[in-house]
Amino acid sequence: MNHQIIAIGADHAGFDYKNPIKEMLEAEGINVLDFGTDSEASVDYPDYIHPVADSVSDGRAQLGIVICGSGNGAAMTANKHQDIRAALTWTEELAALARQHNDANVLSIPARFVSLDVAKAMVRTFLSTDFEGGRHARRVGKIACM
């Protein structure tokens, strides 16, 4: 994993995955900006996802990880930010393709639909995979609405 600062945020459904993923990253020497939540108490996921997207957009973090029950609300929220390309994935292959083909800069994890081991593997793959550019750069350049 070659990124120095990663932002992470989760709602109550993603809380149980957030700390183990954060600990895994820190053990590999990666700095983590943790935007919460810090318990299983019910919260509104946008309150924890917007700060992750903001930190990636403004350059405080190179990439972001967002976690909620289905991954959908987190991805939808992050993708409201102009410079964010959040990818909802449930396999390592999809995490790799999101980086290779879409230059995704936020990984959205569906905590209720993947195991913690799969979530960690997706994070490792997402962070260690580079954007391929080429024909994909042209397509990624057409994603944003100006």
Brief characterization of the structure:
The chain is 42% helix and 16% strand.
CATH superfamily: Sugar-phosphate isomerase, RpiB/LacA/LacB
Strand content: 15-25%
Give the H and E element order. Answer: EHEHEHEHEHH
Tally of strands: 5
Count of folded domains: 1
Mean pLDDT: 94
Widest sheet: strand ordering: 2-1-3-5-4
Query: Which runs of at least 5 residues are low in confidence (pLDDT < 50)?
Result: none
Helix content: 40-55%
Which CATH class applies here? Alpha Beta
DSSP summary: helix tally:
6
Task: Determine the N-to-C terminus distance.
Answer: 32 Å
Q: Which features would summarize this protein structure in a list?
A:
6 helices, globular, alpha/beta, 5-stranded parallel beta sheet, 5 strands, Ribose 5-phosphate Isomerase B, Chain: A
Plain-language structure description:
- The protein is of the alpha/beta class.
- It has a single domain (about 5-140), classed as Ribose 5-phosphate Isomerase B, Chain: A (3-Layer(aba) Sandwich).
- Helices cover about 40% and strands about 15% of the residues.
- The chain has 6 helices and 5 strands.
- It has a 5-stranded parallel sheet, sandwiched between helices.
- The relative contact order is 0.18.
- The model has no long low-confidence stretch (mean pLDDT about 95).
Layout of helices and strands:
Blueprint: E1 5-10, H1 15-27, E2 31-34, H2 46-57, E3 63-68, H3 72-78, E4 86-88, H4 92-102, E5 106-110, H5 116-128, H6 135-140
Parallel strand pairs: 1-2, 1-3, 3-5, 4-5
